[in-house]
Amino acid sequence: MSESRTIADLALEVRSKNASPFWVTMELFMRDTAGYTIVADPGYLNASVIARLYGVDADTVQIFRIPALDVVKISFPRPVSQGSLRDRDIHAGQHHVPLSLFPLPNE
């Protein structure tokens, strides 16, 4: 039985970073247009998926699809502000992991 493929299998890079002390931004740099077409599909990757992965309100998730660059950018409010007592990732550098490991739709 083979493991299911994930977004990371189609991406050149998946990264996350602070967009401010109150927001996180993640960027999916896809290898090619075929991979971009899969992950940019709103039926596959949408605000509800991000809300479930990151425990945020779907109404606050912003998704920007940039076909000319084969990039999807996602922003959402940080659960706690940067540098606060309960902040476990001050640079938001590890937030990309759940998204990287999100399974691709059945091919």
From TrEMBL:
Family annotation (Pfam families): DUF4387 (PF14330)
Question: Ranges for the DUF4387 domain?
Answer: 7-100
User: Superkingdom of the source?
Assistant: Bacteria
Name the InterPro entries for this protein.
DUF4387 (IPR025496)
Q: What is this protein called?
A: DUF4387 domain-containing protein
Species of origin: Streptomyces cinnabarinus
Question: From which lineage does this chain's organism come?
Answer: Bacteria, Bacillati, Actinomycetota, Actinomycetes, Kitasatosporales
